[in-house]
Amino acid sequence: MEATTSRSPITPLHSQIKNTNLNPFFTLKLLKRRRKIPLHARCSSSSSSSGKSNNQKTDAIELQKLIEDYPYEFNSKDSPSSLPRPLTSAQLSNLTSEGSRLRVAYQGVRGAYSESAAEKAYPNCEAVPCEQFDTAFEAVEKWLVDRAVLPIENSLGGSIHRNYDLLLRHRLHIVGEVKLAIRHCLLANHGVEVKDLNRVLSHPQALAQCENTLTKLGLVREAVDDTAGAAKHVAFHKLMDAGAVASMTAAKIYGLNILAQDIQDDSDNVTRFLMLDREPIIPGIDKPFKTSIVFSLDEGPGMLFKALAVFAMRNINLTKIESRPLQKQALPTPDDNAPGFPKYFPYLFYVDFEASMADERAQNALGHLKEFATFMRVLGSYPADNGLP
Ligand SMILES: O=C(O)C(=O)C[C@]1(C(=O)O)C=C[C@@H](O)C=C1
Description:
The protein has 389 residues and is α/β, with parallel strands linked by helices. It is 33% helix and 24% strand.
């Protein structure tokens, strides 16, 4: 799988994509151009005062190239020479063939477990690094990428709450899940031994998954955005007193030494990732499906019992239940004041159950739940990953 998967040479997508308000067609093409011109490099060179005229010239050339390549996107004000020209079928077929390789957003930098999960979920995809979870959601929403693959729970560390909140705030659909065995290593620069270490850097989930080992070693934990980012930092700054908890892949990429392998507290350390898309998939009954929903209830004795009974009475197995305090900023803005949206009950319940939305039992169960739930949304109905991680 490694050999067939190429990485995006662009620097991680960051929150600047908030300002991208282009139409999807143009954004897709602009992104292809960005692959050749790293975003950060372009920003920093044009902001430096020296060589300003050179930059202006480069910008002009860039704009001219854009006008030539994408005439349909510019009106006569932008391009004095011509009115927009319709797309030719050659341009369209080019786009289709180039676009056939799926671009998949993940959070972190190269070597993160999420990158491996993206590659497992979509073999031969182009994995696109994003700085934050929110950025990955937005990248899909704004058509910068085709899908996102994000962690949702780990067998040792539990739920990734941030992603539960983001699932509600954004309008993406869960179209699949993928489970990945997480095997952590303790990494350090060459020449550094375990006894030299005072501190260790990693993602908070990874630090939590290695709690016993790190406590035994007496290392101070420092949380960073992702495991591979920790490895990169240790290597880049040539730290001699700090190690990183990350994957073997990260060790190879950043040229670090592996001081210890499999340092997670339990050998069965598995993270479940969700595959997200702009459109839902059509649920089937040809293979085992799972459905994820979120709902809220009125306050009162036995309300949750009553809600869960709609599944039990139809012999539907629940695989996960998560309750999250209702946060104003986690609400999907357009529905904020929609009738029936929870105003008083302070919790949202996220439930995964083993049935497809094409299954009559699931439809009846949700119809029943809707009769008394104050809010309900189906987050996705998708094939279950029942294979070995
Ligand atoms: O830091 C990484 O490498 C990630 O991919 C993130 C992440 C997470 O968020 O849980 C993914 C899998 C592991 O459980 C540890 C960290």
